[in-house]
From TrEMBL:
InterPro entries: AAA_dom, DNA_Partitioning_ATPase, P-loop_NTPase. It comes from Belnapia mucosa. Residues 11-184 form the AAA domain. Transmembrane segments: none annotated. This is ParA family protein.
Amino acid sequence: SAPKPDRAKPRVIAFANQKGGVGKTTTAINLATAIAAESRVLLFDLDPQGNASTGLGVERTARGAGTYALMVEDRPLADVLRPTPVPNLTLVPADGDLAGAEVELVGLDDREKRLRHILAGEGMPPCDYVFLDCPPSLGLLTLNALAAADGVLVPLQTEFFALEGVSQITKTIERVRRFINPGLALEGIVLTMYDRRNNLSELVAQDVRGFFKDKVFETVIPRNIRLSEAPSHGLPVSLYDPRSPGAVAYAALAAEFRQREKARRS
Ligand code: ADP
Ligand code: MG
């Protein structure tokens, strides 16, 4: 269907968890892709590793200017927008210098609100959602994302000690809410790399649901090899293997996400 008409302000969702390898980037790419079927999405790659950029077909050598140029050098947003293989999904890639941003941002004015100001600025293209793929740390890049976001989506690997890992990010959300961005909400928790053959996965899921209740998405993302193969082809899983369990799961997650968005608006 055709994209909806302009809304005044896009919804900004940060994908954050200080742990690496939990499915932040995989969830950002594949949820963005599914949402882009009905809405315009702008995805910012805030991780110096640039996995969201590679995973959407923007090779390391072809990245040019991206989130570093934008946030540290004040480059206009229009200069750093890249099309992706997905219609309605635009990428701001991670540039090679982004690793330096953690240090360089320290010396800049309003260092934790650079991104927030950019998203509120004149240069924003019309879009419905802004997705922010965060690095695996709680440094200034993640802080910029949390300061700019309406909601945080926390991917959680379904493994032992899952709950212990999540307390760090929830405390950080609490602090950001208190000192920088009172509007920030925990949008939800997504259980990733779920293994149906392993009882432990079910126990961990019950544990997380017991603690975070309906903040946890009903949809769980299974461990699926297609999800790990797709990025090396520069494609979201739905374009790489649309019938794979991973593609089916992210489509279900997107349906649930939309449902929640609708409920939130009414
Ligand atoms: P993060 O962004 O949190 O570091 P990624 O999304 O990059 O995590 O995932 C880490 C690794 O695990 C990547 O190689 C990715 O392809 C793979 N991966 C992510 N989710 C799944 C899954 N559900 N099943 C199998 N592999 C996955
Ligand atoms: Mg990542």
